[in-house]
Structure formats: C-alpha cells, structure tokens
Amino acid sequence: MRNKSIFLLLLTFLITNTTFAQEEWGQKFEQLGQQLPTPNSYRTGSGAPGVNYWQQQADYKIDVAIDDKKQILTGSETIKYYNNSPDVLTYLWVQLDQNVRAKGNLDAQTKTGPIKDSTTAKSFQSQMALEDYEGGYKIKAVKDAAGKPLKYIINRTMMRVDLPQPMKKGDTFTFSIDWTYNIYDRMVMNGRGGYEYFPADDNYAYTCAQWFPRMAVYDDYEGWQNKQFIGRGEFALAFGDYEVNITVPADHIVAATGELTNAKEVLTKTQYDRLEQAKKTFDKPVFIVTEEEAIANEKSRATKNKTWKFAAKNVRDFAFASSRKYIWDAQAVKLATNTPLAMSFYPKEGNPLWADESTKAVKNTLEVYSERTFDYPYPVAISVNAANQGMEYPMICFNFGRPRNGVISERLLDGMVSVIVHEVGHNYFPMIVNSDERQWTWMDEGLNTFLEKETKRERYPNLDLEWGTPKGVVDYMKGDKDNIRPIMTNSEQVKQFGYNAYGKPSAALTVLRETVMGPELFDAAFKEYANRWKFKHPKPADFFRSMEDASAVDLDWFWKGWFYTVDHVDVGIEEVKWFRMRTESADIENKGKKVKKGDLTAKGGDNKTMDFSNGPEEFSLVETDPRYYGEFMNRVDDKAIMQKFENKNLYQVKFANKGGLVTPLIIEFTFTDGSKTTEKIPAEIWRMNEKEVTKVFAFEKEVAAIKFDPNEETADTNPDDNTFPPREAASRFDKFKQKVN
Questions:
Q1: Is 419 within 8 Å of 455 (Cβ atoms)?
Q2: Which residues are paired to 59 by β-bridges?
Q3: Residue 695 contacts residue 655 (beta carbons within 8 Å)
Q4: Kind plus residue range of the DSSP H or E element containing 178
Q5: Nearest to 707 by CA among 654, 660, 649, 666
Q6: Contacts of 284 (CB under 8 A, 6+ apart)
Q7: Nearest partner of 638 among 618, 620, 654, judged by Cα
C-alpha cells in the first residue's frame, strides 16, 4: 500500500512538472536577482547607502563676464577637488558640454533622417548642422595652484587633466581653467543655455547653463562617468560649494543659483528694501522690479558693468540668467524647517500670466514636494521666463509660457504651470537626490513627472491631469513594439523619449501608489528613498530596493514588467458563469430548458451576452469524507458551511492576460438593484498561471454587469473586453465622433 502511494505521488509530480515544462513560463514573479548589482558595503541590499559609502566633492570659485555687444562669455575658475574614494587617482575628467556644438560634434555626425518635401528651412538647417555659429569652448589655460600648466587632452565633450602626482584617499587638488565661448541664439540652435533676442527693443535675455567646465562624477558604481554628451542624456555631477562673480552691464538684473551676497551694491535702495520685505511676506509676491520699471530699464544702455556675487552650498551645478528686461517678484514660503524665497524673473512679454501664476506655482511646488519628500533645504527657488524652454538647475529654472496677443488660453495656462512645477520640482530629483541623468533619465524625469502630477492634482484640479497617469500612456503602451524601448534604457537609445522617460515611469508610480501598494505604504517608502539618498548618488537598484525595504511589498514582478519590458496591460473577461448551491427546495420552474444553466457566455460567435432567463447552474456541497481529516480528531460543521452558502449567488469569472504585463485585478460588480461593489485582487493572482486565471465571487444579490478596471487605474489598453456583458465595440467612425463631440 505504501509503495503504491509513493508511485502515485511520483506520477503526479512527473505529470505536474511535465505540464510546467511545456507551457511558456515568463518568470514574471521570479526575483530580479542577477539583474541588480550585488550589494556591498557601499550600497546595501536594503537600498540604503552602506557603511562605507563615499562620494567626491568639487568646490568652485568662478569669475564670469558677458559681452552684451558680441554675445561672448568669458570665464576663469578655480576648482578644489576632494578624493574621498579609497582609490588612487592619476587623472581627472572634466565635462566640456559646450563642445556638443563645436564643428564635427558627435551629435551632428550621427544625426540621421531622410529629406522630406516641404521641410521648413529652419528645420533643414538644423538637420544638416549648417548653422552659422562657431561653437565650443576655447580653453585658454589649465594650471595648477602654483600657476604651472597642466597636461590635458580633450576628447569631444570630455577633458582629461593629468595630475602631477597621484591623489590618494583624503587628498585634495586645486587647479584652474580659463575659457571663452560664443553664446548661441536659442531661436536658431536648440539648446539649454544661450540667449533670446528681442528685436522690438533690441535687447537680449541670457540664460546661461552648462557654461563652465564641470567635474565629472567618480563613484563606486563605475568609476569615472565620462560618457560623451551627445545632447539628450543630461548630466552626472558632483556636489560642492560655489562662489560665483557675474559681471554684466550695470542695467541688467541677474538671477542665479545661490544667495545674492552683495545685494546692497547691485540693487537700488528701493529694490533692496523690497527684497527684504519679500522675505517676510507669505500671502502674495512683492515686486522688487515692477513692470513699469522694467520697461523703462529696457530702453537704457549702460556703459559700465556691475558684478553680482552669489554663494551656494552643497549644490551640484550653477546656472544664471541676465537681462535688462526682467521684472522681478518674490514671496516667502513657510515650511516646517525652512523658509525659502520663491522668486520669478520675466520680461513684460510674459505678463499678465507670469505676474499672476509663476511665483504661486513655485510656492505650490515647494509645499507639496516637501510634504512628499523632505523640506526644501535651499534659500531660494527661482523661475525665469524663457521662450520655448523648460530646463532645471539648483535653485533656478528656465520656463516657457507667454500670452498670444494678451490672450491666456487654458492650454497655455496648463503648459506654463506644468513646466514651472516640473522644473522647480527638479530641485528634488536630481539636484538633491542626485541620480545619473546621462545613464538613467527616468530616475529624475519619471519621478519628477509623478510628483508634478500629484502637485497639480492637489493644487490645480481644474487643469489637465491626464499626463503621467495610467490613462495617459495607453496609446503609447499599445503601440508598435518596434518603436518602444524599456524604461531601463540609456537616454541616448530611447525611442519616444517623452513617454519613455516621463509619462510611463510616472504612470507606473501612479499604479504602484494607487493600486498595488496603497497611498500610505507608497508615500512612506517614497519618502524613505528620498531621505536616504538626498545629497547622494542613487542608482536604479537603490530605488527599487528602498521601495521594497520600506514597505514589505515584493515588487520585483512590478519592476520587471514595467521597467524591463515593453509588455502592456490588456486583461479581458473571457467567461462568466453563475452558480447557486442546490437545496431541497430548489426552484424547478426552469425544468426542461435545453440551454445549459449558469453559462453566461453565449459562444455562438464573438458577441457575449448575460442570459438571466436560464437561471443559475446548480451545484451541490456534500459532507466531508472522514478520510480527509487524517489524524485530526475534530471536525468542521458541514451543515453550517452549507447554510452559509445557501441562497448565495456565486460567479465564476475567467480573466485572460493578453498584453503580458501582470496587473492587479480591479473588478466592479453592478447588481440588479443598481448598487455596486468593487473587488481588488493583488497581481500575485497570476503567479501560477501568467496567462489565464479563474476566480469565484459570492454575493447575496444577483449581478447584472461586471467591469474590469472601471476607473482606468491599470493602463489597460483595450477597454472593449473589460465589461460583461460586452459592449459592442465602437467603430472607428463612432470613436471619431466621440472625440469631435
């Protein structure tokens, strides 16, 4: 008998394993394992910095001047570099980002695309890289602290500076670089820095970014991050302290990273008093420079210069803007541990929109982001108006948005508010939580788009809230897979950049918060990640591990599906059956019906109906055979169990995973009396069968309709098969009419 039992057990095992071997198993619930780097003393398995975590530091003292007649920037910097690593360094790598516009640059050489009829001349000039512009740095000198020339080699956008002697752990090295470059016209050449020319009053507005040679990052993960700057993948930068002196025409107004340390020297007494008043004003902005004053100022032409001095502590970059056209307003923001100053700089062309909305948007951003992560630690947060731009730097950002003929459309308002919230929000990701944008754009753009969406949801509920949501990425995710890359793709190889780096990661985090984890667990874990890695250099694994570590939710299946594949969510309700337990007083009115009871799926073609006239299919519960109890002496109450299910309506629902991306099941049941209830089933329901699952639901009431994902929370790409009874799929013409109406 014992041998027979063992034989049957082995036979069952063989049959089961043969079945598993034959099916296509996507391993969607297996751990990421070797796809993540091995934890060590620098970065732990929990996602937190390790006991031996280290990072380099680079401090800058810079003098920079703008020639407003020739549009030339001239600079001289002294860099003090700290080797906090355990490694010996024999050379340093410096980023020369302006060289991306030098003749023969990598971007121009590798640009592809055919000739298209009726292409605009401006676009074709850019495609062929034929702009009449001499770009790139002219390096005048590279010297050590004693003034002795250092050996250096320039490789496109990177410069290697050879050290006179190796740097050991704890060593510092001070050296200087002198340079100049031609500032470019942003209307002609697309770029993050440059100038905008205003022909009506013959003025310039300079937004200076990537304007000085900057130290590359050296870290425990890959050593030097010296990947070439091609133009799209942004920046990896070290933290440091800055002292920057900016010399411009005396009638210019300057906005910059950091605190203005010589305000009394560069501002009039009236302007200085207004600035001091703004630091104590919380209800509305105070104008340091009014529109009337800016209009008068833009007509002047100073013959002398002024030097504006700024200091910034523990920042990864420095940017500034300068123009005689700027209006300037400011307002204090009260946070739990800090009171930063929200400020806006803009020409009259931005009004009335900017006076009403810019500084308010800065304030809203600081308040919401601080609540979700950590209090904004810097003294100022600045929004500068710049045509067709949205770009971020520590404490300052450049943003588009100008009325057309004085008209402020809803679309313009939404775009302007969205870009300010987004770019100010970048102070948190990546300016403070300092991820490597050159490698992983989603780590700052995706996380920031998510918080931008959350800020708008809380503070601007009447604006467009679809971008960055599951609903907002449906068309993208169901598109041609040859034109989509996984989120975990380097910036320069990404296709459909906006969706891949911004929209889809934000939608994924929304699904994670609202559907998978719940707001309480998600918010606590997200805040934990932000606080663990503020003023440090996190990598993707640090984010993934921190979110799991702080929530006790196994999310490997989620990261694998959303971040490492191009699968999409498409769950269909394939079959519904209605059951009731058979009783002695069973209704026999339908006796003699030839149609099988309980089967709510009419299989005569593609259309499915819910036929209540047949009534439910009956099934029986029987008393438990004593052999099922084994050695247990006590028994369950079979009669009580049967009584519990007497008169219950049981619905057996089969779901099919057609898109490949596993997802929680959110199912709305509508009853015959019009009431509704929603069941939420975790994604782990797919762990034994990734393609098809069947689930039974029990209700007192009779069901009239069933719907998957009723509130469009999962990014399901095909709503036509989400309802039961199915709705007739709308024709393309019907869908077009719906959009028009």
A1: no
A2: 80
A3: yes
A4: strand 172-182
A5: 666
A6: 331
A7: 620
Least confident of 16-20, 34-38, 177-181, 276-280: 16-20
Q: How confident is the model at residue 124 (pLDDT cuts 50, 70, 90)?
A: low
How far is 54 from 253, CA to CA, in rounded Å? 39
Backbone angles phi, psi at 425, to 5 degrees: -60, -25
**Amino acid in position 83:** N
How many whole angstroms separate alpha carbon 512 and alpha carbon 470? Answer: 11
- Tell me, rounded to whole angstroms, the distance of Cα 701 from its chain centroid: 43
User: Per-residue pLDDT tens for 263-305?
Assistant: 999 999 999 999 999 999 999 999 999 999 999 999 999 999 9
Determine which helix (DSSP H) or strand (DSSP E) holds 421, and give its type and residue range. Answer: helix 410-425
Cα 162 to Cα 168: distance, rounded to the nearest angstrom: 14
Q: Which residue's entry shows tokens 């100008």?
A: 402
Q: Are 167 and 173 in contact (CB under 8 A)?
A: yes
Alpha-carbon distance values, 672 to 47, 155, 279, 676 (Å): 50, 73, 61, 9
How, if at all, do strands 571-581 and 617-619 pair?
Answer: parallel
For 547, the token pair is: 């979110």
Report the Cα 633 to chain-centroid distance in Å.
58
Q: Angle, nearest 10°, between helix axes 504-511 and 556-563?
A: 160
**Sheet holding 676-681: strands in order across?**
676-681, 665-671, 703-708, 723-724
Q: How many Cβ atoms from other residues are within 10 Å of residue 25's Cβ?
A: 12
Residue in the block written with tokens 């929304």: 510
* CA-wise closest residue to 178 among 28, 63, 327: 63
Q: What is the pLDDT of residues 203-243, one digit of tens each?
A: 999 999 999 999 999 999 999 999 999 888 899 999 999 99
**Average pLDDT rounded to a whole number, residues 448-467:** 97
Contacts of 564 (CB under 8 A, 6+ apart): 35, 486, 487, 488
The whole-angstrom separation of Cα 542 and Cα 564 is: 16
Helix axes 442-459, 353-372, angle to 10 degrees: 110
Q: What is the DSSP string of 475-528?
A: HHHTS-GGG---SSS-GGG-SSHIIIIIIHHHHHHHHIIIIII-HHHHHHHHHH
From residue 321, alpha-carbon distances to 157, 270, 355, 693 in Å are 23, 22, 18, 58
DSSP state of 116: -
Distances (CA, A) of 125 to 122, 223, 356, 575: 5, 38, 38, 58
CA nearest to 468, candidates 494, 438, 445, 435: 445
Structure tokens at 538: 């996190």
Instruction: Look at strands 203-208 and 320-323 and give their pairing.
Output: antiparallel
Contact 379, 341 (CB under 8 A): yes
Q: At what angle do helices 556-563 and 540-549 cross, to 10 degrees?
A: 140
Distance of CA 113 to the CA centre of its chain: 29
Rounded CA-CA distance 360/333 in Å is 10
Helices (H) and strands (E) counted in the chain, each on its own, are 17, 31
| Bond before 37 cis per omega within 30 degrees | no
